[in-house]
Amino acid sequence: MADTAKSATLTIGEQSYDLPIYSPTVGPDVVDIRKLYGQAGVFTYDPGFTSTASCDSTITFIDGDEGVLLHRGYPIDQLASKSHYLEVCYLLMYGELPTAAELEDFENTITRHTMIHEQMHNFFRGFRRDAHPMATMVGVVGAMSAFYHDSTDISDPRQREIASHRLIAKMPTIAAMAYKYSIGQPFVYPRNDLDYAANFLHMCFSVPAEKYEVNPILARAMDRIFTLHADHEQNASTSTVRLASSSGANPFACIAAGIACLWGPAHGGANQACLEMLKEIGSVDRIPEFIARAKDKNDPFRLMGFGHRVYKNRDPRATVMKQSADEVLDLLGVENNPILQVAKELEKQALEDPYFIDKKLFPNVDFYSGIILEAMGFPTSMFTPIFALSRTVGWVSQWKEQLADPQHKIGRPRQLYLGSAQRDYTDIENR
Ligand code: SDX
Prior knowledge:
With 431 residues, this protein is mainly α. The chain folds into three domains: 6-53, Rubrerythrin, domain 2 (Single Sheet); 72-267 and 387-404, Citrate Synthase, domain 1, CATH 1.10.580; 270-376, CATH 1.10.230.10. 49% of the residues lie in helices and 6% in strands. It has 18 helices and six strands. The chain has helices at 36-40, 76-82, 85-94, 100-111, 121-125, 133-143, 157-182, 196-205, 216-228, 236-246, 251-262, 270-281, 287-295, 316-331, 338-351, 354-358, 366-376, 383-404; strands at residues 6-12, 15-22, 30-31, 60-63, 68-71, 74-75. A three-stranded antiparallel sheet has the order 1-2-3. A three-stranded antiparallel sheet has the order 4-5-6. A hairpin with a 2-residue loop joins strand 1 and strand 2 (15-22). Helix 3 packs parallel to helix 18 (383-404). It is globular. The relative contact order is 0.13. Bound molecules: s-citryldethia Coenzyme A. Residues 48, 232, 235, 266-268, 270, 294, 302-310, 359, 361, 364-366 line the site of s-citryldethia Coenzyme A. Pathway: Carbohydrate metabolism; tricarboxylic acid cycle; isocitrate from oxaloacetate: step 1/2. The active site is at 308, 366. Belongs to the citrate synthase family. GO terms for molecular function: citrate synthase activity.
C-alpha cells in the first residue's frame, strides 16, 4: 500500500476521527475509511461510486481531465499504433512488455486454446436464431464452468492462469459462433495459421462454400479495436467481475457476469445504440433536432457515444478510433459514408454547444467504433459482443490481481435505509 504519512480529520459533533490518506503513483490521493463505521458508527454515501476507490490496482490508469489512458504505464495511443492485441494482453496480465520469446510462447498458448468443447455447440442450438448474441455469450461463457473443471480452483495460481488463457482464446470463437448461429450459417472452426484478429474475421465471414481471404488491413483495424477496448480501470463491468469474484465464484461465472453488465446501453451497449442513433438522425440537417433533444431535461434521449463518468476531456480511444474510421472507410471505398458524415458533423456541432462544453461531454470509445464495425460487415447486434471479446483480457487481469491480493475479502456495501421503521403485522381483516 502507498505512503500513509498524511491523514484527514473528520469531525462529527464533539468527536474527531483521523483517517489515513494514501498517495498513488499518479492521480488523486485516497482517504482510507475502512475503520470509519467501527470508530464513528457512520457509513459514507456514494451510490454511483463517483468518489470511491474500490481497490488498489497496478493495471490501468485514467486521467479524465487530461484524457490520458495508460496500461501498465504505456499510453493507449502508443499501444494502438506500435503494439498488437495479444502483446497488450500479455502486458495487462503480466505487467511488462514480453520479450520476443515470451510473446511467441504466449501467442502459441492462446492459439491452441481457441477451440471450444464440441459438446458446447449444442448450447447455441438451444437459443432462438434471433437471440441477441450478447444473450448467447452470457449463457455459453457461464456454461464454460461445466466443461473446464480443471481451471476453476481459484486458489491455484496455475489454474487461474489457465482459465485466463482459455477465456482470452475462446471468446472470439464464442462470439463468432453466436454471430453465425444468428444468421443461420454453419460454425467456422478457428485456424492456427491465422493471427488473433484475422482468425476472428475468418470465423465470422468465411463460409464452407468458397475460399475466404482475410484483408490484412481490416485485420489490423480489427486488432486495433480489440486493443482500444482491452481494459479501462474499475468501470461497471470490471467492478461486476471483481464483486462476483469476491464471493469465490469460478472465473467463467465472473466473466459471464461482466458480459451481462457490459450489455447495458449506458456502458458497452452504447456502440450499438450510437450507430442506431446516427441512422435515426440520418442526415446532417436533422442534427440540431437531436442535439436539442439531448439537452432537453424532459426528454430521456441522450447522445449515445457521448459523455463519460471519468473523461471530462477527449477519450483518447475515440481519437484513435476516429483516425481508424477514416482509414477503413477509405480502404473500403465508402469514405463518403453518410453515417460517418453525420457522426463528424454531430461531433463538431456538439463540441461547439455550450451544454456539452459546460458539462464536458466528449465523444467516447463507442462513438466511432460502430461505424468501422458496420463498414467491416458486422450487424449492430455484434458490436457489444466485440467489445466483450476485447474486454475479456481486462476482466481476467483485474480478476487475477484481486485474487492474488491476500487481503481481498467479499465485497458487501451497506446502505442509507429510508424504509419503514419496525412495525407489527396487521391481519388482513384489519387492513
Ligand atoms: C463506456 O466507465 C467506463 O470506463 C466505461 C467505458 C469502458 O471502457 O469501460 O469507457 C465504456 O461505457 C463508455 C460510455 C458509453 N455510454 C454512452 O455513450 C451512453 C451515453 N452517455 C451517458 O449515458 C453518460 O454520459 C454516461 C453513462 C457515460 C456517464 O454518466 P454519468 O457519469 O453518470 O454522468 P451523468 O449521467 O450524471 O451526466 C452528467 C450530466 C447530466 O446532466 P445534469 O443532470 O447534470 O443536468 O451530463 C448529462 C446528464 O444529463 N449527460 C448527457 C450525456 N451524458 C451525460 N446529456 C446528453 N447526452 C449524453 N450522452
